[in-house]
Amino acid sequence: ATPMSIMVGTGRGAREGVLVRNAEALQALDRVDTLVVDKTGTLTEGHPKLIAVEAANGWPENDVLCYAASVETHSQHPLAQAIVQGLKDRHGEPGVLTHFESQPGLGVSGSVEGHVVVVGNAECLKQAGADASPVEASATAHREAGAGVMFVAVDGRLAGLIAVADPLRADTRASLAALHADGLRIIMLTGDSDATAKAVAAQAGNIAEVHAGLKPQDKADIVKHLTAQGAHVAMTGDGVNDAPALAAASVGIAMGTGTDVAIESAGITLAHGSLEALVRARRLAHATMRNIR
Ligand code: ADP
Ligand code: MG
């Protein structure tokens, strides 16, 4: 009955929005005891919205947003889209960008009308030689509310910060509760800051561990480390950044709403991009493997 049961399982899965690459993927999902989830785009909707702009060192707030958006017009990152859209919503026009560089997992930089503009995380700001202390208290407050914070530097000096909110998907809390009840230890990984990550984890519930400030390769290393300790790991993710970690897991689970690179690296794809489908996928895996044994 072996191959037949699996085909039935995968056929039913497809109707429920669970796309299974092969029998091994379903078998691995049945055995999994640890679920590693990416924050952005998996727990959250993945479409951050600008919620605040704060200026420092005498810059007008509008200039801070305008400089940042001018550079971000050349970035594909969801955070870049939030900043560009934020400027549009405030009826601003981006300035002319003459040079652009992207540092994955850190931020972006460029020349805007004769000024060197950097937008990114704390590490990125530090590399630009700028001091974040004037906005540090405000950055902490935004992070503790679960918002993401990016710093803006102009000509090597802090110009302000931009805060974005990326709400939890509607089903996240319930799905994590169901997966936890199904015996999974849930671990969250993110490139975002520790304070934002912990606030989001608290809102989501049932997350045993949080690892923040990660580079794409760090995510894969954590999955490999857990596996070496004897864990059977399922990893979910949506971004190009998540592809190495998806490939390192016993079973990689891509969000169908994410990038093609993630989908190609995964054994299972959740068509509608929500963890609700993973709850169904686990049931399907248990039922199918029970039939075979
Ligand atoms: P995520 O965990 O959200 O997928 P990334 O690994 O892509 O994040 O990036 C980590 C951090 O680097 C982001 O939280 C942000 O602070 C900064 N960053 C990355 N890309 C950009 C960008 N295009 N503009 C500004 N900041 C960025
Ligand atoms: Mg991501």
From TrEMBL:
Subcellular location field: Cell membrane; Endomembrane system
Similarity annotation: Belongs to the cation transport ATPase (P-type) (TC 3.A.3) family. Type IB subfamily.
Protein name: Cadmium-translocating P-type ATPase
Originating organism: Acetobacter conturbans
Chain's gene name: cadA
